[in-house]
Hints:
Layout: E1 2-7, E2 37-42, E3 46-50, H1 56-62, E4 70-72, H2 78-81, H3 88-94, E5 98-102, H4 104-113, H5 115-118, E6 130-134, E7 141-143, E8 146-155, E9 158-165, E10 168-170, E11 190-194, H6 207-217, E12 221-225, H7 234-239, E13 245-247, E14 253-255
Parallel strand pairs: 3-4, 4-5, 5-6, 10-11, 11-12, 12-13
Antiparallel strand pairs: 1-2, 1-14, 2-3, 7-8, 8-9, 9-10
Amino acid sequence: MKLTFLGxxxxxxxxxxxxxxxxxxxxxxxxxxxxxSCMLSxxxxxxxxxxxxxxxxxxxxxxxxxxxxxxxxxxxxxxxxIGLDDIRPFFYREKKDINLFAExxxxxxxxxxxxxxxxxDNKYPGAPNVALNAIDYKESFSxxxxxxxxxxxxHGTLPILGFKIENTVYCTDVKTVPxxxxxxxxxLDVLVINALRExxxxxxxxxxxxLDFITLVKPKKAYLTHISHLxxxxxxVEKKLPANVYLAYDGLVLDx
Length: 256
């Protein structure tokens, strides 16, 4: 199985529109970050995406993705779901419903935002068909015979999900990890976790908070994502990280 980082930026992306911050002006491709998302791939062109943000179309084109089995959604914030309309080409080509996996509260929010997709009685003729798979963080589920364990996390005050697939955990937008969720972080091969910036933030791990959590759970390797320009230049930040911790960047592919 492969994990591709489709985007590693925060809600505004990097560079930010109109910003003169040095990181936003960087020529290093690793300092250019689309909104956070990743893709899990295995077998004969089986692809699942975690989150479908505003850069989804660009991400699919960049990686020449021509098949999408489904989407796992961590939470309903715009930078993680607003690209949902761009699943249309996959639906048109494959002529089958696109599977969505999320908590019911997320589907409730999406139904308001994308009423023309979800309203069966008034469905827009060009809208894609989706299959809603409501998940509970207390129960695992399967995607193409691979088990996925949702993990309860807290984003500010909002309950959200991380996902554990085999011995890899993908988490974004985390500020608090409940004690009952720690059991899913034991003896990991790979942990992906957010690290917004060095300064305190009300709903995201800072760099130090992310590093402290990595020290606590001791994965073999950890990759930082959901990064803002305020964290600094990719090359400079990487030099300060522990030996088993890396800054993820758009396009990075991990063999799991």
